[in-house]
Design brief:
single chain; alpha+beta; Structural Genomics Hypothetical 15.5 Kd Protein In mrcA-pckA Intergenic Region, Chain A; nine-stranded mixed sheet; 21% strand; elongated
């Protein structure tokens, strides 16, 4: 019986790659160090022409007309591969599909009916001004939220609209446009809807004809100044996220000694009791005896951040006023007064907010 001759490995085409420090080196283009013999012919006059907007006289070391980012050298068999220009809007078949192969039933139904992107029911109800997301989740756990008479089992239920949704048997209408109010919170009131201890809250001071509003962020009971109120739970959450980066400015009257240099060091952030506070812009306004008036601007808004940072500097805060939140300022708004932001101004501001997940 004849034996088959042993198979030989296929021969590689193109110039050999030389090994050296760091492994094999890629063949390089004409005029570059490490050029292999036979990898390129003599230079032509066209080799010195500028490419892709380069200034005249600048040497690029590449042929005119080669594709941007082409790392292959002319030494490869047949030279660089040329491709026809791609037509505008051309895509490979199946590339960049806008919809997954097996979409969620709610997404598929919304797409078929021409409705908007489905969202969690808790988010939709919060945007409709029913309650905060956390409160809506509690309502769902208690069986108070229904869809076409059937109790909702999870706050993650996806819906394209609130059609058929009811809370405590009352149908929920489509959410109206978000509204924003400026409120000059006086000291001595809690930023909450109810207090188990019976202490006064901001809702005890708000006008009776105001729609149902939710505070954006919180101010301590002893803190006064600008508090934003909105009818849109989604907008409230977006404003409160540190990633959104909306600046808040405060004026603090503090007892003790501090220098402008110490305040400027806060721009690098500070860590207190294991909690890291981000950059704070602080300026010493004036002194009245041993009391200092300090202006501070921050973007995170962590719990009692201003007071904790100043106490860390051996200062005792005896008055704290928030003077602005984003582009909205307290100005001369009387204590306890409420003023609505115009829809045009609110729409412009929302366009400037950073996109968040």
């Amino acid at each position: 019986m004849k034996r088959n001759p042993p198979l030989e490995p296929p021969k590689k085409s193109g110039p050999p790659r030389r090994s050296g420090p760091g492994g094999p080196k890629r063949p390089t283009g004409p005029g570059k160090p490490g050029q292999t013999e036979g990898s390129a012919g003599p230079r032509r006059a066209s080799d010195d022409k500028p490419r892709f907007g380069a200034k005249p006289g600048a040497k690029t070391g590449a042929k005119t007309g080669s594709r941007p980012g082409d790392a292959r050298a002319d030494g490869f068999r047949g030279g660089p591969t040329k491709y026809p220009p791609r037509k505008p809007g051309f895509k490979k078949p199946g590339a960049g599909a806008s919809h997954p192969a097996n979409p969620h039933p709610a997404h598929a139904a919304a797409s078929a009916e021409g409705k908007g992107e489905p969202q969690r029911i808790a988010k939709l109800l919060a945007r409709a001004g029913v309650a905060s997301r956390r409160e809506v989740e509690r309502m769902i756990e208690e069986g108070r939220v229904t869809i076409d008479g059937v109790a909702v089992e999870t706050p993650a239920t996806l819906l394209a609209s609130l059609h058929g949704v009811a809370v405590d048997g009352v149908a929920i209408a489509a959410p109206p446009p978000a509204r924003l109010f400026l409120f000059h919170k006086p000291a001595g009131y809690l930023t909450t809807e109810r207090d188990p201890a019976g202490r006064p809250t901001i809702y005890d001071r708000l006008p009776a004809d105001l729609p149902r509003v939710m505070p954006i962020g919180r101010l301590d009971m002893s803190t006064e100044g600008l508090l934003l109120l909105t009818t849109d739970g989604g907008f409230k959450r977006q404003m409160e996220l540190p990633a959104t980066g909306v600046p808040r400015t405060y004026r603090a009257r503090a007892f003790g000694e501090v220098s402008q240099q110490q305040l400027e060091d806060l721009f690098d952030g500070v860590e207190i009791d294991g909690i890291r506070y981000g950059a704070i812009e602080a300026n010493l306004e004036r002194r009245t005896g041993r009391n200092q008036w300090i202006e501070m601007t921050l973007t995170e808004g962590k719990n009692r951040e201003v007071r904790r940072v100043l106490e860390h500097m051996d200062l005792k805060v005896n008055r704290l006023i928030r003077t602005s939140y984003g582009p909205f300022v307290l100005a001369d708004l009387p204590v306890g007064a409420v003023e609505e932001v115009r829809q045009h101004d609110l729409a412009l501001f929302r366009k400037t907010l950073k996109e968040t997940a």
